[in-house]
Structure formats: structure tokens, C-alpha cells
Amino acid sequence: MKKEVWRFIDSGMGSPSFNMALDEALLDWNSEGKMPPVIRFYGWNPGTLSIGYFQKAEKEIDLAAVKRHGLGFVRRPTGGRGVLHEQELTYSVIVPEEHPEMPKTVTEAYRVISEGVLKGFHNLGLEAYFAVPRTDEEKDSLKNPRSSVCFDAPSWYELVVEGRKVAGSAQTRQKGVILQHGAILLDIDEDKLFSLFKYSSDRVKERMQRAFKSKAVAINAITCEKVTYDQAKIAFKKGFEEGLNIELVPYELTEEELSYVEKLARERYESDEWNFKR
């Protein structure tokens, strides 16, 4: 049976505003029928702290620390908590809600899309699996997260290796389109990550950082040989093709598309009104 063809965009290392603007633009173009389903891979230059759409930036984030570390800062159009994007492969998936392979519920669609990420981990030789909260306490903790840090705990169908979270993803549905993007950690600087958030006391910060070590892990902390960014791209591109039963065909943005993205980046994702609105 012939596989469905999706576009594949490898946009390289982008600024925080460009990265979020391109994801939004792809959603818009898909909604308008100008773009078929897309999978995009990207990185961040500079390293960036992104926060979820509903987070309160000035209440939760130590913005002086973000500046001190020379990091970018941006609010995502998706929910979730704070993510330090540095030593990682970031992916996004843009697909219509009405796509025949997409379940109607957010949770089940998340599982279907994340099948591609799961296969990518398998391609790297890692025994990843989906986390499914079992107890009422675990389910309640998803509704009321105690931490501003995304990788603090696995949520429904999050990817886990050896009991620890290895990828964090978020999803939004707008204009009849699903946008899911996520961070696949290659390495992580935990001290830097935890310096970026506000805490009620040093003791609380220390306790959360200790707990984090038992809940999250980067790929290169659990592999015998270091996985590079380029190796990860190969493994996860193949993973998405296997997991979603699709063929990915490379696509380059036109000059017109690129200028639209750059305009959106300037007007929305570089504006204080967007990034600090809550």
C-alpha cells in the first residue's frame, strides 16, 4: 500500500521568535489548504527558555537569570511548562484535526503522533515506552503541577526510558489543525535549568532539583556512545516515517513564505505584549 507523503522541513538553528513563528505559520498554511501535513526539526540559537502559553512569566521565571546566561526567551503558542532548549532536537508536527489517522481526543492524538518519537528512541537502541499515569494521585498531579519545569514529571503518553522522562511535548488545536511540538533531550545542564525559575525558598529549589534527577534524563546520560544532533535527526526522521506510516519529502520554504515567518516573528514573538502578557 502506498504511503501518504508529508513534507519534512529541517530549518536548522533558529532564533526563539523565528522558531515559534514558523510553527504558527505552518499551522496557518495547513488550515488554509496551502500546505499538507508537515514534520519539522529544528534547534535554537541562542539557547532559549520557552514557557507555556498559560504561564505567568514574571511570577514564575527569574528573568535576570535568563539574561545572565545569555539565553533567549519566548512564550509558546502551546500549553505546558518551562523548557530550556539547548542540547536537544526539537520537532513539530502539523496535521489537520480531520486527518483520518488522527483521533478526536487530544490525549489519543498525542499518543498517535508520539509514536514517531517512540520509534526514534528505538532506532537509537533505547527501550523507550509511553508513560500512563495509573494512580489517582498521579492523575491529579497532572491537573495541578507543582513545578514550573516541564520535565518535572511524565504526563499521559510521555516518553520514558528506565522510568525517567526523555522527551517533553505540548499540543494545541487551532483553526482545525493540530500543532504538536516537543523537545528531545540530548544533554541537559540541570543547574542552569533550575537557576531560571523562582522558588519560595532555597530548600524548595534543592528538593525539586533532587526530585528532577529521578524523573527526567537526557539521552547521552543513558547511552554508551554519545548521540549527536545529526544522528538524532536521522533516527527520529526514520522514526516518524515508521510510527506514522508516512513518507517524508524534504521541503524548502519559498522567499515569500520566509518573509511571512520573519514578519510574524517580529510582530508577535519578539513583542513584550506576547511574551509577558500574563
From TrEMBL:
It catalyses: octanoyl-[ACP] + L-lysyl-[protein] = N(6)-octanoyl-L-lysyl-[protein] + holo-[ACP] + H(+). It is an enzyme of class 2 (transferase). One of its GO terms (molecular function) is lipoate-protein ligase activity. Keywords: Acyltransferase, Ligase, Transferase. Pathway: Protein modification; protein lipoylation via endogenous pathway; protein N(6)-(lipoyl)lysine from octanoyl-[acyl-carrier-protein]. InterPro entries: aa-tRNA-synth_II/BPL/LPL, BPL_LPL_catalytic, LipM, Octanoyltrans_LipM/LipL. Residues 33-248 form the BPL/LPL catalytic domain. Its EC number is 2.3.1.181. The record marks 165 as: Lowers pKa of active site Cys. The active site is at residue 150. Catalyzes the transfer of endogenously produced octanoic acid from octanoyl-acyl-carrier-protein onto the lipoyl domain of GcvH, an intermediate carrier during protein lipoylation. In the reaction, the free carboxyl group of octanoic acid is attached via an amide linkage to the epsilon-amino group of a specific lysine residue of lipoyl domains of lipoate-dependent enzymes. The reaction proceeds via an octanoyl-thioester enzyme intermediate. Belongs to the octanoyltransferase LipM family. Monomer. This is Octanoyltransferase LipM. It comes from Cytobacillus purgationiresistens.
